[in-house]
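**Reference record**
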Amino acid sequence: MQGARVAIHNKGGFWVKLVALMSLISLSALATADTVYPAKLSSTELAGYAFKNPNTIVTETPSGKIHDLTSLKSSDGKFASGMYSAGKSRFDITEPYGVDEFMFFLEGSVTLTSDDGTQMTVNAGEAVTIPKEWTGVWETEGYRKIWVIYSESGDGL
């Protein structure tokens, strides 16, 4: 019977060693997993060179090109930031804006007219936050901005 106990004991030792080895392999995989980095836009990129990034979405419109670069999208898909530029445009926003968006204007300006007729002009060097419920008119001769968007559903990012 003692020989049987030794065999069981050795078998148990095998499983302990196997579990330990698998744990080390798992930890090693975690250590070599993709590293997450902060998203930086340098002063050169902020001057417009960020739009040379191959991930920039370029849309042709009658008033010129729109450039949109997402520099970061959160792992839960509810938050994103980036840079955007557009030429002369006017939008009647009759449905709620849909996302909470912070914007810092690097160049140009935008005039926002709320449904009650209140007007606000945001110039280069100024910032505005538009709540997801906002409706009104967006009008501009052109601008470049940094944007930060939160969307609880992840839509609009």
Observations:
- The helical segments are 2-31, 43-46.
